[in-house]
Design brief:
- The protein has 7 helices and 9 strands, in the order αααααααβββββββββ.
- It has about 270 residues and is of the alpha+beta class.
- It has 2 domains: about 90 residues, 434 Repressor (Amino-terminal Domain) (Orthogonal Bundle); about 170 residues, Umud Fragment, subunit A, CATH 2.10.109.
- Strands 1, 2, 3, 4, 5, 6, 7, 8 and 9 form a 9-stranded antiparallel β-sheet that branches.
- Helix 1 crosses helix 6 and helix 2 packs across helix 3.
- It comes from Tunturiibacter gelidiferens.
- This is Helix-turn-helix transcriptional regulator.
- One of its GO terms (molecular function) is DNA binding.
Amino acid sequence: MSEIGRKLLIIRNQRKLSLRQVEKLTTVIANRHGDKARKISASWLGRIERESHSIAHKRLESLQEVYGVTHDELTDEAISENDATRSLHFHFPNVPAAVLKGLTDLKNPLLPPESWLAYFPVTTLLPPLSQIDGAGHRTVRRYSREAEPLYGVLGAGDNTLVPFVQPRAIVEINAAVRTIEAGKVFHSIFERPIYFLRSHDGYHCGWCELDEKGWLTLVPSALAMASHRRWRYRQEVEVVGVVNRVLTRLGFPKGLGVQSRVGRLQ
């Protein structure tokens, strides 16, 4: 097994991704770029992980984006399984800084949906704005627990909160709230906090219930036609924070003078 093949295998296993899932994710990337050379088949990746082969630059870029690692992390020094775990835990999706700023800064001109929707097929946590310098580059790729709010984007297929929160909505997250009380009773959905979660298979956003046995359940809206999800609290899932606001940015014609709508959760 080549060194880079071993690294790719370690990282994919830590990401809990199958070869077929990587193929699907790189297909999204290839379609976004209009470049079939960026797509990686499951059989090809399996050979790369087992044998010594060269990797074309475009395919390597696709793997970096899917796994959330840098070029240096794949091509320089060897990484252990523990190092891979820490790296993946703190890495964010490879989204252009200009897109990040445009989505979360309401003072900036609106971004047309076609310029950013393709980056978020699934629910995603965005890097804090403080990690993006004046030139629009991300300066740090580690998760910060500072008071600054985080932002997430609900994936195109995330119907958990429909019709109250639509897929592709942007949510503002208070990362200071990272615990859930077991057995707490709410009298209406408007009293219930919305949590942003991270599990081994990605990010999730919705109402939650924690039972006395330590099982955390993601509860979808009754109208969402979505299934419940369960994890072992703090073993299989962690709380990124509680949602403060849902921001839905609407691109109306300039003559209307309406550029954004911000809904605050009480």
